[in-house]
């Protein structure tokens, strides 16, 4: 775009000509002038973009609100079919929203996964607040994750037992992402430290692990977990499908997080290492008291970004048939009566993903800005 | 080990103590740790390996890559090379690999183009355009790629059937069988013209190098475009004309169930390409924006003060500096696009993962199938990394 | 000197330690990680529950109803085997398996028996580590098209786009048939049956090919079944069989003879309703089947009255068929008893 380059025409203005007063730079008119209509090209772009946006918006509102069907009586989707695409059939979401959120979890027990979702959100919010960044946070995590396990499985405290095959929906997405992070993070720290080790064998192993995992798509790891893993185990021993997928995600996340942590370790000035050595601290004291607290603080924004990545990537378990949010959405439209309303369901599922990811990405941006301010001082 | 410490004056290195067999000697500790780790890891690997061997034996599952030479019997919808179901698994997998490369290469080119445009638009002084680009980037990056692929595929499946196909321009048909367009019937003349174009491109590049070298000596800039025009447009046209300028267009037409003739872009390929490109473009836009912002304002001003015109400022001053920031993260995006193309399996595009998956399903040889997938991606990843590292080294700042 | 450098080693030791530990931890607490001895029969008995691999959802064969209870032909076979083992048809856990993971699930012990419309072929029997116990349904591959196309024969499919599930015998049969009949087609391959169906319904493909029974199931599930018709050609033999792990003869015997029991029960007119009264039936074979004499049950390692329990749980073959497959429009055809011109034949209970 030409507006990237600075205008150089000032010199060409004839000096003698009487000049009109400068255009207003303040107020609405001024804002419009500087931001939307600063040159003829800019004006043309503005008008074109505005036209397209407005047209699209009108179309979307017509399809999504004006002409939409919000509910239909017991699976009679004829009203929706009659629209022939000029309006959305939100009835599919009205009808199937509990299925999309909770999958095949027993219907009357839906409050349990719902509570788990709230617990997860609470856990995220607490972890995001800087005043809670203490060692005790790890305990909170362990406690909450344990509570979620109890709620989901049941079998104690008068809760009926629900086998894993019946779990589904949003809660699976949250479980895969959160447990993945909780287990991958310590692994990642150790691998990152190992990769900077001076012992050749250890360094080689860590490099091999990170590069191997980062070189292949997550899908191949998930396939491995679903069809190859059973062959690795001794005869008679077998692990649940969900757990296998979770292990694959942990291994995958570990390699990526390790690189993020390594970035933090490298960004730390050499003086910190040398000063710690000069104080005669042992390796673990040096790492635990001096290096990691600083390095981890440095990598929190990229860490959150990586987490957003995993959160989205958990949707890949669809391919090996695990019932996460996306799979549940997809399954909801398999019933013949509801076939063909994929767009509505995908928009809804997308909105759920978006809320989580957008909140996290805004948070990471704010945090980054805060850290940079601190560093600049 | 200890002989090297005989004459400390010969080396400026600190004297090395002889190896003491004590826990307080860190070298001993290091060796012990390494032996321990390698041993432990080896034990785990051996355990898994022996389990696997035992399981394969007990369950009498076939092993080895012998199946690659067996007849595959699996039909493949689109293929860059000649293929039919009587061919071997090896050939089927090759077709899959080519399909992966087809979507990855086209995706990389398109995502780079769109991403760069969006990235620049985000920096535009036009508020509306900048906001729109920002919204695009934010939304596209916060939705799972798989969801986007399914979304596009659902939209494409909702298109009318071939008999009611939409026809935006005469001869181009859009239906739930994909996009059909007229295509030139390929003849030898076209192959030679293509060859001439490639030669012309190489020639232009060589000329540019020579011209730049001359410019270094005498300071005279030389025009590139006449040479480029001649070598890359006129020469191929001349070659084509020399063959009598054959020109038959293959028009798609509805016959029987489907369109015959012309070129087809299947809904599966289209949805995958669209999803991959738009998704990755969101990330590339941010990289490009960061790269341009990383060039200090003073560089723009200084270049203008030297009297360079805007195009030259961008070309000679800003881009070379921005590229240094852009290339490394761009490499990882290119790797991502390649790895993400494996999601094809969810919407039925037959890439390497899809075909290896079917193969392991038919032969029951899971280990071999997954090994093939991993090997292919590792090789591709490594090649892209190597190429981009080489390119990065070329454009890196040469410091004295 | 490198004062602390070498102790970095600990980092990675810890890494691996953690990895191994993590793996160990994930294995140990799982009550699901059962120790199955090589002998499936003992393992299943010790567990008190049969784990049965079924389809992820195929009307008439295996599909969860709105209460999440598995219904269908294959699911009933699981109940029958459970009833033979435990005397209770509900002591079974259903594990839905896709076409891709079905064999792995069986090999690894995730499921004890595969009751999931799986075609018996030589290569599967020999190289996949499984044995086929009995063919409980004879099927063949066919084509379904939209009625509006007005097709009479599959040979008219020249140039058509055909939906087919990858990694199945269906896919290979299709290629073979197309080659033999010089029919060119474009395949659309989607792994999951449900999505493949929706691709066909949305018009992505002109024709849909799978086992005729599967086509009937899909057709019956459509809002207007008459909009789809199944073409007359049957292009392959698809004996759908019950699969068990290889080298497990005793368990295979039980699965096999449970199937034969259902056939014999139909042959001798033993039904869910009259099974108690039939104990007084004078025919010697009925006496032997129902465990009144002959001691056949213990020979299989089961109780004397196993057959009574099975028939009480699911009924005989005809009842089972009528309950699950007749409603979706599948005729007995080759699955009639041999004395009615079909292929279903039970060796004698003796």
UniProtKB/TrEMBL annotation, chain A:
Q: Report the SUPFAM superfamilies cross-referenced here.
A: MetI-like
**Domain named ABC transmembrane type-1: residues:** 170-364
Main subcellular location of this protein, as a coarse class = membrane
Keyword Transmembrane helix recorded: yes
Specify the protein's topology with respect to the membrane.
Answer: Multi-pass membrane protein
Question: Which molecular-function annotations from GO does this UniProt entry contain?
Answer: transmembrane transporter activity
Q: Where in the cell is it found?
A: Cell inner membrane; Cell membrane
- Tell me the PROSITE patterns matching this sequence: ABC_TM1
Which parts pass through the membrane? 40-58, 110-126, 138-161, 167-193, 205-233, 245-265, 345-363
Stated family: Belongs to the binding-protein-dependent transport system permease family. HisMQ subfamily.
Q: What is this protein called?
A: Amino acid ABC transporter permease
Q: Which organism is it from?
A: Roseicella frigidaeris
TrEMBL record, chain B:
Superkingdom of origin organism:
Bacteria
The family database entries (PANTHER family) matched by this protein are listed as: AMINO-ACID ABC TRANSPORTER PERMEASE PROTEIN YHDX-RELATED (PTHR30614:SF37), MEMBRANE COMPONENT OF AMINO ACID ABC TRANSPORTER (PTHR30614)
The primary site where this protein sits is: membrane
Q: Where in the cell is it found?
A: Cell inner membrane; Cell membrane
Picking any one GO molecular function of the record gives: transmembrane transporter activity
One GO term under biological process is: amino acid transport
- Report membrane topology: Multi-pass membrane protein
> In its UniProt entry, what is this protein called?
Amino acid ABC transporter permease
Q: Name one GO cellular component term.
A: ATP-binding cassette (ABC) transporter complex
Q: Return the PROSITE patterns for the record.
A: ABC_TM1 (PS50928)
Where are the bilayer-spanning segments? 30-49, 103-121, 133-155, 189-207, 227-249, 269-288, 370-391
From TrEMBL, chain C:
Is Transmembrane included in the keywords of this UniProt record? no
Q: What is this protein called?
A: Amino acid ABC transporter substrate-binding protein
Residue ranges of the Solute-binding protein family 3/N-terminal domain?
Answer: 49-278
Signal sequence interval, chain numbering:
1-33
Q: Which SMART domains match?
A: PBPb
Q: Which PANTHER family match?
A: AMINO ACID ABC TRANSPORTER PERMEASE (PTHR30085), AMINO-ACID ABC TRANSPORTER-BINDING PROTEIN YHDW-RELATED (PTHR30085:SF7)
Family per similarity comment: Belongs to the bacterial solute-binding protein 3 family.
Which Pfam family, any one of them, does this sequence belong to? SBP_bac_3
The organism is Roseicella frigidaeris
> Does the keyword section mention Nucleus?
no
Sorted UniProt keywords: Signal, Transport
| One GO term of the biological process aspect | amino acid transport
InterPro entries for the chain: Bact_solute-bind_prot3, Solute-binding_3/MltF_N
